[in-house]
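Page 42, continued from yesterday. The earlier attempt failed because a stray header line got pasted into the input along with the sequence. Redoing it now with the clean sequence only.
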Amino acid sequence: MNTPVTHPGEPILQVNDLKKHFAITGGLFGTIKGFVFAVDGVSFTIHRGETLSLVGESGCGKSTVGKAILRLFTVTDGQVVLNGQRIDQLSAGALRPLRKNIQVVFQDPFSSLNPRMRVREILAEPITNFGLASGREEIDARLAVLMDKVGLPRDAINRWPHEFSGGQRQRIGIARALAAEPDLIICDEAVSALDVSVKAQIVNLLCDLQQELGLALLFISHDLAIVEHMTHRIAVMYLGKIVEKGTRDQIFRAPMHPYTKALLSAVPVPDPDAKRDRILLTGDVPSPINPPKGCRFNTRCPYAFDRCRVEEPELRQMAHHHVAACHLHDRPNAENPLLAGMLNDV
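This time it went through. Structure tokens are written below.
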């Protein structure tokens, strides 16, 4: 997965200026005292067969983006367009038949599976709910194919979730998502609770399924080492906003935002003798209740200057497929610390 996937026509998923502000209430009458600006203007697209990874520290709003797309709560503003149709304003009844097109794999494979249902019932539920098969024989045939696709023995279908390991349970979660025959799967920290060796197996499984079925994946993660292995494009979030977007190679080889650079400096390298300048961010992540004025990263940025504290930077084109929101790029190249290493290599 070294190059971006390009497809003509509309993307499977289009998110336009998405916002989710949670009201803070208090007092006897539930008076609104403020808002948590969890997601504050996020836009991106995903095409068939493509993986977009949404990355950032805990609390940056990336999981909230996933839940907003899934309509697990009402969005504050913006648009979510699935296969050319807006779904953010649909009623529950109108949305129900479209849910088969967008499925999710959650972080904790145990809590996301009903402990009172056997694997057979868990996998058969979306098949029957969306009318994809009828009759025991037809459903059993589909279940057998699903078990094969996720690498589990067919006879395990009559077991309970607690009888499986964490990695096996996550394979069941993936099989359940596939059962609905979706166009898009949202993986919300889908491998973060697994052991290192099991992570690699699940990531390879997702990559294989994507190539076989043409799935689009929104991969939400804080683990950039995993992201580098499987993604086509990356969107970096900080405090409710996307600060940089680009292809995998653009982000990992030529990051254009100080926050992205800091995240990448913390990724372990395979060679223990290889040198990497670690960028240690000072201070804590500001509260999304009262985000800083100007650039939201200015309170922790080692390169912040006066303009950063008063004017919010817009995402600007750095290269084809590559955008970043940073005032440093208005300075001459020789005075831009983000370009220092690149200029030395020329």
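Notes: The first strand starts at residue 13 and ends at 26.
Reminder to self: strip header lines before submitting.
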